[in-house]
Recover the amino acids of this structure.
DNA sequence: GAATGTAAGTAGGCGGTGTCAACATGTGTC
DNA sequence: GACACATGTTGACACCGCCTACTTACATTC
């Protein structure tokens, strides 16, 4: 009865422990064998559920994107129509800051080079939502005569860029201060509020 | 005389070959031992010059940042005063697109977690230059009554974000088209030209 | 309810990796 | 010319992802 032959739900346990160690030690120090050790299981057991390490990272990325989409969804649901675009951008950045390592997995080249079908679908769906939100805002009068594709590129670049600048400390210390959140909002508003 | 005991300039050869393989196979497939094999040298020889793999990546990052700074320098030198800020941003993005893998090294978490002194210095110097350029533009009347810190955050996020969106294909296919460069410029100008 | 096919675990091995220690070989300096 | 020192080599260790063959438990079917 103790240490049964079958773990029961090794797949979920692997994912949970992986995300845990991810936020502790970073992507590059995540190993399938260490994961197996942590869960008291043979070193090859994880391969039954994730044939390759990339598959594991891919599954984690799926959970990450789902979490991200959930966060933006609730944020947008609590915002009135015209403010939804702003809520979406801020939710993305906030999510990235509170899930830094998960966010890092999402921009791991090895993951993004061979994304699973479901991950790719989630990403394009999210992108479509961003595009839809832009066109809604334009209908409301925001930057009405601007090329939507340009606005989309700008929105994506700015949100992803801000998230990255916040999570990785590219420019070391200078950026991280208490009133930082205000500056982030102000920065976003340079884009959103210009034609207000 | 053939295959002498001492390589002569192994350090430079390692860096050169590393950058070469980097653009071919990506960061995660760079190995010290493979590098040593390529240069017909024993597997531990690289450790004399780069005690750890992170040190090698760090040195590559230094070369990368120097190259990036050089590119922005010449771009800015060829632009009249008020257009320098725009030239700086576009030079950054262009450099990232033409040196995608080198750019990826610069945002490799393992590199950025323990940056060498010289790399950190280069980065802060570059950041200072961006700040200086912003304040110069503000003196010229551009977004004069805006918080410089917010402008800096926006500039950094937007440039880094655009560079990343272009080099990694986060949203798969939709973004990469021939007239893309025009859209990039238009996107940048949403920020730069707003208060013109 | 036994037989059986399959999913999920184990054991072991292969080739690869980064890193270390001990040793060898040149090079530059007094 | 002796000697310190930088730069190579060799061999080992512990780890890694991944593969194959084997074993165990579960589920389905007759």
């Amino acid at each position: 009865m103790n240490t049964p032959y079958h773990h029961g739900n090794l797949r979920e346990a692997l994912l949970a422990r992986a995300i845990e160690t991810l936020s502790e030690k970073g992507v590059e120090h995540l190993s399938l064998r260490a994961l197996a050790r942590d869960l008291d299981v043979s070193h090859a057991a994880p391969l039954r559920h994730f044939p390759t390490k990339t598959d594991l990272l891919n599954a984690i990325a799926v959970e990450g994107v789902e979490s991200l989409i959930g966060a933006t969804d609730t944020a947008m649901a609590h915002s009135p129509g015209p403010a939804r675009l702003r809520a979406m951008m801020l939710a993305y950045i906030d999510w990235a800051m509170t899930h830094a390592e998960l966010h890092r997995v999402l921009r791991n080249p090895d993951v993004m080079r061979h994304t699973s079908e479901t991950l790719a679908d989630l990403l394009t769906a999210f992108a479509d939502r961003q595009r839809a939100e832009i066109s809604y805002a334009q209908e409301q009068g925001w930057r009405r005569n601007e090329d939507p594709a340009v606005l989309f590129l700008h929105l994506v670049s700015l949100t992803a860029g801000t998230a990255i600048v916040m999570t990785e400390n590219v420019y070391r210390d200078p950026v991280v201060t208490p009133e930082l959140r205000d500056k982030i909002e102000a920065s976003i508003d340079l884009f959103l509020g210009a034609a207000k």
